[in-house]
């Protein structure tokens, strides 16, 4: 990577993509290429291939995806598997066809089996059954990893993959039904505070444990991994498992998370957990020893990150509450 390269960030309007663009600019990269959904339909193969042919792209950050929480994954499994498969296939193949040598694919920690050993190492991939509530999305992300591995193996492309833990931060999706747990709780607890509701009911038992990474830390990790020399990256990966976990190495229960968000928001009512709703996987903590071996470590604490996210939410209420079905 060098500062004069033309870098395409797919999904720059989303939480992760916008943070990557900001990090690239802060790092001195001058030629950052972006396209909105109206300008380029990533689900259209011909349009994507024409775009890559017209632009002199040197490197790609593939942060475009259809994302959502447990409820959205349960309600729209076909959309989650189809849209994610077609977006990653179109971009990765078009990059290859136009001789783009460097690409970073962003996956998800949901690729790992429901009962994987903890903390979850990269080698746990495909070693057991997936969590049923997000299996279609996970399968699409596994396919993205294997696409990158296959083009690297057959054509010597330098296509890398990072598997982030649960992400949150500015530009997140705060839709009350289709969002992940952190933005969903921020939105609901903020509304409960405004209405002085005596209690807030939260899906599940509150016992599952999750790891959370601020999006600015994730963007920093993406740049760090892309800027590594190929030999250094390959030295820390299995030849047949080239993805890297990215997380904090620390987790908490959903109940602890909800209580912390309530303090950040200033909500003093009761938190009631509805055990009739699905919990998802009991625990998901990533083994981040490889990324630390490569010289990167998360720097933003969960409380500081939540306060930053809530400030952004308050400053962008109109926008935040209308972010529903979208691509990262």
TrEMBL record:
Any matching Pfam family: Epimerase
Binding locations of substrate: 188, 203, 210, 279
A GO molecular function held by the record: GDP-L-fucose synthase activity
Listed GO biological process terms: 'de novo' GDP-L-fucose biosynthetic process
Pathway: Nucleotide-sugar biosynthesis; GDP-L-fucose biosynthesis via de novo pathway; GDP-L-fucose from GDP-alpha-D-mannose: step 2/2
Segments forming domain NAD-dependent epimerase/dehydratase: 7-231
Site (Important for catalytic activity): 108, 110
UniProt-listed CDD domains: GDP_FS_SDR_e (cd05239)
EC number: 1.1.1.271
Database matches in InterPro entries: Epimerase_deHydtase, GDP_fucose/colitose_synth, NAD(P)-bd_dom_sf
Catalytic activity of the protein: GDP-beta-L-fucose + NADP(+) = GDP-4-dehydro-alpha-D-rhamnose + NADPH + H(+)
Catalytic residues as annotated in Swiss-Prot or TrEMBL: 137 (proton donor/acceptor)
Keywords in alphabetical order: Isomerase, Multifunctional enzyme, NADP, Oxidoreductase
Amino-acid positions noted as binding NADP(+) in the UniProt annotation, renumbered to this chain: 11-17, 106-109, 141, 164-167, 180
Domain of life: Bacteria
Stated family: Belongs to the NAD(P)-dependent epimerase/dehydratase family. Fucose synthase subfamily.
Record function comment: Catalyzes the two-step NADP-dependent conversion of GDP-4-dehydro-6-deoxy-D-mannose to GDP-fucose, involving an epimerase and a reductase reaction.
Name used for this protein in its record: GDP-L-fucose synthase
Species name: Microbulbifer rhizosphaerae
Gene that encodes the chain: fcl
